[in-house]
Design goal:
mainly alpha
Length: about 80
């Protein structure tokens, strides 16, 4: 029962049901970075260009790693469960 439910959740995440959540999480991350920039601005320790570059590189690297992990994880679950990808 648990494996079947988990397979349905994985299938739902692959079909794009969680797109709204992903957008909200990205917006929250950018908002957090901008707050940190606003706090560090008076000390002038970090330039805005550096912060934006770090955000872009971080999003790209994390997105790639998460996509590969999700692909690997879903393949393993699909081989063990009754639901095929």
């Amino acid at each position: 029962m648990i494996e079947e439910t988990h397979a349905r959740l994985v299938a739902a995440s692959l079909t794009g049901v969680d797109k709204h959540v992903t957008v909200l999480m990205m917006a929250a991350a950018v908002y957090g970075v901008m707050q940190l920039f606003a706090l560090s601005y008076p000390a002038r320790s970090v330039r805005l260009a550096t912060v934006l570059l770090a955000v872009v590189v971080g999003v790209y690297a994390c997105g790639t790693v998460v996509a590969l992990l999700e692909l690997t994880y879903t393949r393993v679950i699909a081989e063990k469960g009754p639901v095929s990808l």
